[in-house]
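Review form for a predicted model. The reviewer records the input and the model, then writes brief findings.
Reviewer: anonymous (R2)
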Amino acid sequence: MAVTDEAIEKIKGMIVSGALRPGDRLPKESELAADLGLSRNSLREAVRALSLIRILDVRQGDGTYVTSLDPQLLLEALSFVVDFHRDDTVLEFLAVRRILEPAATAMASARITEAELDVLDAQLNALGEWPSVEQLVAADLEFHRGIVQSSGNSVLCSLLDGLSGPTTRARIWRGLTQEDAVSRTLHEHRAILDALRDRDAEAARSWATVHIASVEMWLRSTL
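Model under review:
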């Protein structure tokens, strides 16, 4: 494992230094192993590990390439890890979301276009006043994803996308058990949208915080 770690660090060093850039093809295995002073087996293990976290792309019959290194691509590994969360860590995921998402919503207030606001408005209108819990939760995910994407920060967007999964079940359970959960969620979504239309960053931040905190507070009361 130590030899494989060394191989990973050497390939990482080549990418960080710019010797290998996004989209570049790695030299042939025998050449790269010799250049880096590695065995072909340790190099092969390093390439396999780096391909799993989307740093490298192994193309059968073509070669191995550095990926685009786009944040959304790289942070897919986060989504994979997050899938292994335990039920008792959901509150921690909600707490992280409560820190990041209001900031993203405030950022979006200055960047979101009228066309994007109209799409969000149409989504809310399509739900009607009494959507099913499943419809509401699916729409909730799309609503917040649309806003965060408008923040213009792809890293923040990818992080929040990865963190949304563990909280989905909690949101569904809240909708089924809390009497006013559906109407309250719709009201909060509308308030967030109104703040975005007004280009009021602080109001958008505040309503996003209230919205996420309400789920967190409900979950705490059930534990």
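Findings: The first strand starts at residue 56 and ends at 59.
Further findings: The chain has a mean pLDDT of 86.
Recommendation: see findings above.
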